[in-house]
Amino acid sequence: MDRIQDRMIRAAKLDVQLYEEVEADRGAMRQAMTVVVLSAVAAGIGNLAEGGLPGIVIGTLGALVGWYVWAFLTYFIGTKFLAEPQTRSDHRELLRTIGFSSAPGLIRVLGIIPGLRTLLFLVAGIWM
User: Fold this and answer.
1) pLDDT tens digit sequence for 71-94
2) Which residues have C-beta within 8 Å of that of residue 100, sequence separation ≥ 6?
3) Alpha-carbon distance 100 to 25, whole Å?
4) Whole-number Å distance between alpha carbons of 55 and 61
5) The whole model's pTM is what?
6) Cα 35–41–1 angle (5° rounding)?
């Protein structure tokens, strides 16, 4: 567990080496998915007053689908439309790196504090 926590902190700090590390680590897919789920659940909890319990479930599922679609689009655009001759990537690398980029979204859990939700969601969205 320490390793994923360390990676999440480094991801939130926008540590370039972390993103290179998870890009190369084929075993980091489960960790990346965990980060996406935690971020989505945090958003659901932060939005509890608006979405209730169904909002957490729908938000989590939506985040997983969105993560996959965003990684696929990034892969497709980056390797087909904007590729340089030296461009080498696969969809799974992008799933891992984009998954870890969701780490700052954990601050959205603080949206349960009245008056902070909109600001926190904006900050998290930009940060991610």
Assistant:
1) 889 888 888 888 787 777 788 888
2) 7, 8, 11, 18, 19, 22, 28, 31, 32, 35
3) 12
4) 10
5) 0.86
6) 40
